[in-house]
Design brief:
The protein is an alpha/beta fold and 449 residues long. It has helices at 5-17, 22-35, 43-47, 50-54, 103-120, 140-154, 173-187, 211-228, 244-255, 278-287, 294-298, 330-338, 354-362, 370-373, 376-390, 396-420, 427-445; strands spanning 59-68, 74-85, 91-97, 126-131, 163-166, 236-240, 259-265, 268-271, 303-305, 318-321, 343-345, 366-368. The protein has 3 domains: 5-54, no CATH class; 59-191, 3-Layer(aba) Sandwich (Rossmann fold); 211-368, 3-Layer(aba) Sandwich (Rossmann fold). It contains 17 helices and 12 strands.
Length: 449
């Protein structure tokens, strides 16, 4: 419940303008509820209409993407780029290719990206983009033709000092390569810093694939250490998803001594009481692009369940949701609490509903929100931009050490903010306030525009 009349008005005006954008409304309301703790001490925000500007993108670009499939038929998809806030640096955020992509989802992701990028301490603004194109089931040539058409329009709106896209769901190394090739072809210039997530042969960074999953575990480990005097050593960890984030979260959790017991995809979940064999998962998901159910056929003693939410009924010590938004509702959160979890850290973007977060808090579960916990990916994207600017390539260990320190700094920054504003240990409020303050100060300093 928003107490500030100012924030109530900001939110009601926003909801009235775009009544159908439910995901975006959810993200904004969560942040405004945190800012309720500090807004009265900053009358200058209202005088400058700062919140009204903060919740409205600086620019939204929408365009058609025509492409030819392998039969010679012309297909048409929608493309978008939401350039949300550039107060502290060029717009920075991924491209998502998935049938569910719409403006509400991209605005929610771009809005979250503002705060996430702010928390990294790197000079990056917030943005997001993508298309309702589905790469699954498409040939390499079809994906290439789509990416080339998409970039033919997008290149007008991006640049290494303007807007720097990266990958997201449906956009991996293959897609980034095709996008970068088309950008270079049209611009006749090797602007390495215009896209991140590139291949190592043309300016990519070591540790980029691992970054989000590794960073998630680094922050979780620090949260457990500082708030519970615990660690991941010997803990049972439930992970949802089996994409890039989930796979490398599993890898790092195992390196830190945890036993990962679940993973999932859209068709179901697997439970392995002996601990997930990551080599098998990598073979299925990364090499063969198969389905997670194959794991149960290959590993004796494991089991497959056709409802992916069933994995949250498995007792665990630490939960790491790494699949998609709103996968954990109130009932699912109650299962996690009943299963004895001491902590949940979000690897996906906004995987927990507001009702679920409340259940977790009441159940005494430590909660690390996505804008802090999964910031490792964009942090290493920022480090890739640094390397491109300096014409350098750091080693895996150099990037990993920088990533580790960034994630430790994020935890302590958001924890300290929670203490400062009277909600010690509420890392959601701490993340929203800490991320917002830096952007707000920059917006005020730059005047109204």
């Amino acid at each position: 419940m928003l107490k500030s009349i100012y924030l109530q008005q900001v939110y009601s005006d926003l909801a009235a303008r775009d009544p159908e954008q439910k995901e975006f409304h959810q993200a904004v309301r969560e942040v405004l509820e945190s800012l309720d703790l500090m807004i009265d001490s900053h009358p200058e925000y209202r005088e400058a209409a700062l919140l009204e500007r903060f919740v409205e993108p600086e620019r939204v670009v929408a365009f058609r993407v025509p492409w030819m499939d392998d039969t010679g038929r012309i297909r048409v998809n929608r493309g978008y780029r939401v350039q949300f806030n550039s107060a502290i640096g060029p717009y920075k955020g991924g491209l998502r290719f998935h049938p569910s992509v719409n403006l509400s989802i991209l605005k929610f992701l771009g809005f979250e990206q503002i705060l996430k990028n702010s928390l990294t301490g790197l000079p990056m603004g917030g943005g997001k983009g993508g298309s309702d194109f589905d790469p699954k089931g498409k040939s390499d040539r079809e994906v290439m033709r789509f990416c080339q058409s998409f970039m033919t329009e997008l290149q007008r709106h991006i640049g290494q000092f303007v807007d720097v896209p990266a990958g997201d769901i449906g956009v991996g190394g293959r897609e980034i390569g095709y996008l970068f090739g088309q950008y270079k072809r049209i611009r006749d210039s090797f602007d390495g810093g215009v896209l991140t997530g590139k291949g190592l042969s043309f300016g990519g960074s070591l540790t980029r694939n691992e970054a989000t999953g590794y960073g998630l575990c680094y922050l979780t480990e620090e949260m457990l250490h500082c708030m519970k005097q615990e660690s991941l050593q010997g803990k049972r960890v439930a992970i949802s998803g089996s994409g890039n984030v989930a796979i490398f979260a599993c890898q790092k959790a195992q390196e830190l001594g945890a036993k990962v017991i679940t993973m999932s995809d859209s068709n179901g979940c697997i439970y392995d009481p002996e601990g997930i064999r990551l080599d098998v998962v990598k073979d299925i998901k990364l090499r063969r692009r198969g389905r997670i159910r194959e794991y149960a056929q290959l590993v004796p003693g494991s089991e497959f369940r056709s409802d992916f939410r069933d994995l949250w009924s498995v007792p665990c010590d630490v939960a790491l949701p790494c699949a998609t938004q709103n996968e954990i509702d109130a009932e699912t959160a109650r299962r996690i609490v009943r299963g004895g979890a001491m902590a949940l850290a979000e690897g996906a973007n906004m995987p927990s509903t507001p009702a679920a977060i409340e259940v977790l808090r009441e159940g005494g579960v430590l909660f690390a929100p996505a804008k802090a916990a999964n910031a490792g990916g964009v942090a290493v994207s920022g480090l890739e931009m640094c390397q491109n600017s300096m014409r350098l390539a750091w080693t895996f260990d150099e990037v990993d050490q920088r990533l580790h320190q960034i994630m430790l700094d994020i935890f302590h920054n958001i924890y300290d903010a929670s203490v400062e504003y009277g909600v010690p240990g509420n890392l959601l409020d701490g993340a929203n306030i800490a991320g917002f303050r830096k952007v707000a100060d920059a917006m005020l300093a730059q005047g109204v525009c």
